[in-house]
C-alpha cells in the first residue's frame, strides 16, 4: 500500500495569514502520514483544522495523533478539529515529552476557562490518551506493520522526534529542536539514518541563529548537514519563522538546493509519495 505524506501546516511559532505567506502557507505545524491503511497526524497546530474538514469529507473516522510537544503552535488547532466533535470518530492521542504531566490534562487545560469556552468533554469522539517516553519504539495498534521509532529533542520543556517505517520506507519528523554548532545531534542522526524523507526544524538561517540561541530551534543549513551525514534521501525544510515571507523562503529554497539537491522547502498542502 502507498506511503504518503501531506503538509497541512508548515509554519512555526504563530499562524500568519497574510498576502505575503500565500506560496508557502501560514498555518502552524500539522503533517498527515498515511501508510498501510493507517493514518497518523503529527502535531495539531492550526493546520489540523483544514485536515479535519478533509477527513470528514473522505469519511475517515480514525487516526493516531502524535505530538512533538505541547507548545501552543503545535496544539492550538485541536479545539477546532471538527471530527473530534463527532461521536462516530475515534482518535488515539500520544506524547513522549511530558515526564509526569499527562497529555490528557494538557489537552483539557487548554480548553478550560479562561482560555476557551468549550471544554474537552464537549468533544464526543472516542479519545484515548497515551504518554510514552521519547526514545521508545512501538507498533501502531491498528496496524502492527507500521513501526514508530522516537528520540528526545533539544527543546525547552522537551520534545519528541518521530520515525515512521512501513515496508522498507521511512519518514522522520524532527521539530522542534536546537542544535549546538559543530556538534551534530547523535539522537537525531540515529533517528534519521537512511530515511527517505526528513522534515526538519529550519526556523532560522545560520546567520540568524546566534541571536536566537536558547529559543529551541535550528537552521536549514544544519538540516542539510545532518541529512547528508545520515544518508537521507530528501530533506523538507520545515517550521518556517513567521517573519520569513514568501520571497525570503524562495531564496532559502534556492540556496538550499544549490548546496544539496535533496533539499526542498515544505509548502502547505504539499504531498510527497514515498511509494
How does this model look, in words?
The chain is α/β, with parallel strands linked by helices. It has a single domain, classed as Ribonuclease Z/Hydroxyacylglutathione hydrolase-like (Metallo-beta-lactamase, Chain A), CATH 3.60.15.10. The protein has 6 helices and 14 strands. The strands form 2 sheets. It has a 7-stranded mixed β-sheet. A 7-stranded mixed β-sheet has the order 7-8-9-10-11-12-13. Helix 3 links the parallel strand 5 (90-95) and strand 6. The protein is globular.
Characterize this entry briefly.
With 275 residues, the protein is of the alpha/beta class.
Layout of SSEs?
Blueprint: E1 3-9, E2 30-35, E3 38-42, H1 47-57, E4 62-67, H2 72-75, E5 90-95, H3 103-109, E6 126-131, E7 137-140, E8 143-153, E9 159-166, E10 169-174, H4 186-192, E11 197-201, H5 220-229, E12 234-238, H6 246-259, E13 263-265, E14 271-273
Parallel strand pairs: 3-4, 4-5, 5-6, 10-11, 11-12, 12-13
Antiparallel strand pairs: 1-2, 1-14, 2-3, 7-8, 8-9, 9-10
Globally, the shape reads globular
The proportion of strand residues reads: 25-35%
Helix percentage: 10-25%
Q: Radius of gyration, rounded?
A: 17 Å
Number of helices: 6
CATH class: Alpha Beta
CATH architecture: 4-Layer Sandwich
Q: Considering the protein shown, what is the CATH homologous superfamily?
A: Ribonuclease Z/Hydroxyacylglutathione hydrolase-like
Strand count: 14
CATH topology: Metallo-beta-lactamase, Chain A
Query: What is the subunit arrangement here?
Result: single chain
Name the average pLDDT: 97
Amino acid at each position: 500500500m502507498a506511503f504518503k505524506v501531506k503538509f497541512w501546516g508548515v509554519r512555526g511559532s504563530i499562524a500568519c495569514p497574510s498576502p505575503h505567506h500565500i506560496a508557502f502557507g501560514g498555518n502552524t505545524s500539522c503533517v498527515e502520514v498515511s501508510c498501510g491503511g493507517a493514518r497518523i497526524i503529527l502535531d495539531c497546530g492550526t493546520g489540523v483544522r483544514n485536515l479535519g474538514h478533509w477527513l470528514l469529507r473522505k469519511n475517515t473516522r480514525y487516526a493516531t495523533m502524535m505530538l512533538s510537544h505541547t507548545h501552543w503552535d503545535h496544539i492550538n488547532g485541536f479545539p477546532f478539529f471538527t471530527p473530534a466533535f463527532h461521536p462516530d470518530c475515534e482518535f488515539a492521542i500520544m506524547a513522549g515529552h511530558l515526564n509526569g504531566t499527562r497529555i490528557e490534562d494538557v489537552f483539557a487545560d487548554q480548553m478550560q476557562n479562561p482560555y476557551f469556552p468549550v471544554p474537552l468533554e464537549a468533544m464526543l469522539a472516542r479519545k484515548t490518551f497515551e504518554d510514552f517516553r521519547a526514545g521508545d519504539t512501538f507498533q501502531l495498534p491498528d496496524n502492527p506493520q507500521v513501526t514508530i521509532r522516537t528520540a528526545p529533542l533539544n527543546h525547552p520543556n522537551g520534545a519528541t522526534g518521530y520515525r515512521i517505517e512501513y515496508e522498507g520506507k521511512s519518514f522522520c519528523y524532527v521539530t522542534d529542536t536546537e542544535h549546538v554548532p559543530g556538534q551534530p545531534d547523535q539522537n537525531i542522526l540515529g533517528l534519521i539514518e537512511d530515511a527517505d524523507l526528513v522534515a526538519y526544524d529550519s526556523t532560522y538561517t545560520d546567520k540568524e541563529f546566534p541571536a536566537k540561541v536558547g529559543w529551541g530551534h535550528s537552521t536549514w543549513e544544519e538540516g542539510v548537514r545532518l541529512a547528508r551525514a545520515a544518508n537521507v534521501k530528501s530533506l523538507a525544510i520545515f517550521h518556517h519563522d513567521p517573519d520569513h515571507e514568501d520571497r525570503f523562503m524562495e531564496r532559502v529554497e534556492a540556496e538550499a538546493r544549490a548546496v544539496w539537491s535533496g533539499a526542498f522547502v515544505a509548502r502547505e498542502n504539499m504531498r510527497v509519495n514515498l511509494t
